[in-house]
Amino acid sequence: MGVTRRTLLKTFVAGGVGAIAAPGAYGFLYSRHELELTRATMPVSDLPAALAGLRIGLITDLHRSRTVSRDDVTRAVETLMRERPDLIVLGGDYVTWGDRSFVGPSADALAPLAAPHGVFAILGNHDDDHDMPAALGRKGVQVLKDARTRVRIRNEPLDLVGIRFWTKRQSDIAALVRDRSPATILIAHDPRRLVEAAALNIPLVLSGHTHGGQVVLPGLGPVAARKFPVIAGIGQRDRTRIFVSRGVGTIYVPVRLNCPPEAAVLTLQPA
Fold first, then answer.
1. Average pLDDT, rounded, for the chain
2. Beta strand 184-188 with 204-207: parallel, antiparallel or unpaired?
3. Number of domains in the chain
4. Cβ-based neighbours of 204, under 8 Å, separated by 6 or more
5. Looking at 102-190, which runs of residues are DSSP E strands?
6. Using an 8 Å Cβ cutoff, are 241 and 227 in contact?
7. What is the CA 236 to chain-centroid distance, rounded?
8. Exposure b/e, 173-212, CB count within 10 A at least 16 = b
9. Span 93-114, mean pLDDT?
10. Which of 262, 259, 248, 258 is nearest to 67 (CA)?
11. In terms of residue numbers, what domain contains 229?
12. pLDDT score, position 90
């Protein structure tokens, strides 16, 4: 059996490895709260000229819990709102292990999010299928559960396709993108869906889930996230590009090393 991400994180951070004891303490006390704003230009194949310059805000992996406070989420929300994106995407994992006691608080912290063309969300593997989408819906967020919606921006259609974490088969995703517009974004919590998106010639994927590795060790890198095709930032397969956010919160251990939390603003440009 392969070594899991959970096992690696616990081993390197909580297991008493002396070489990272001091950085681990810093990662617990400070680094996991030091949110960065990422501004990135996102090349998109066949992007209509009318959509060039469209700015998409992305927040994911809040993991609101006893160890991820409202302040951590609020910091990300306020950072994104200062950028005034045209459209906002939420990439899932609003709580940890489906903890319903934090469903309401997570949605409340996200309530200030607003954008001219809407706020859209998907669910991650830690989210339940009813309470979390209902709470987000009450805050004006449109939750896409294996669904597609179309927005018109500057008289140009843009299709947003949101899938559940457990939706993995190419045929299931293909059904959602049948007769899609040329400008289509797949919002998939797991960046491994890049493979299916490329096979379907979907030009852009937005993801999270990896936390950027969360613990990035000098000389070794993000050991716990190596199974993903892209761990953080921009990647590409064929003509399909992906952006993977490092996310806001933490999982398994409340530590980040060399991997700060992130809110992102992506500016679309023709590839």
1. 92
2. parallel
3. 1
4. 42, 44, 184, 185, 186, 240, 241, 242, 243, 268
5. 119-121, 142-143, 147-153, 156-163, 184-188
6. no
7. 17
8. beebbeebeebbbbbbbbbbbbebbbebebbbbbbbbbbb
9. 97
10. 248
11. 5-270
12. 99
User: In this structure, what are the phi and psi dihedrals at residue 262, rounded to the nearest 5 degrees?
Assistant: -150, 140
Does the reported pTM lie above 0.85?
yes
Which pLDDT score, from 0 to 100, does residue 181 have?
Answer: 95
CATH at residue 125: 3.60.21.10
Q: Tokens 């761990």 identify what position? A: 231
Is the Cα torsion angle 62, 68, 70, 76 positive or negative in sign?
Answer: negative
> What is the sign, positive or negative, of the torsion defined by CA atoms of 138, 140, 144, 150?
positive
Q: Contact 38/58 with Cβ under 8 angstroms?
A: no
Q: What is the pLDDT of residues 96-105, one digit of tens each?
A: 999 999 999 9
DSSP labels, 139-150: TT-EE-SSEEEE
Q: What is the pLDDT of residue 249?
A: 97
**How do residues 170-210 score in pLDDT, each as one tens digit?**
999 999 999 999 999 999 999 999 999 999 999 999 999 99
CB 236 within 8 A of CB 195: no
Residues 268/45, Cβ–Cβ less than 8 Å: no
Dist CA 109 CA 60 (whole Å): 13
Q: Ramachandran region of residue 60, left (φ > 0), alpha (ψ -120 to 50) or beta?
A: beta
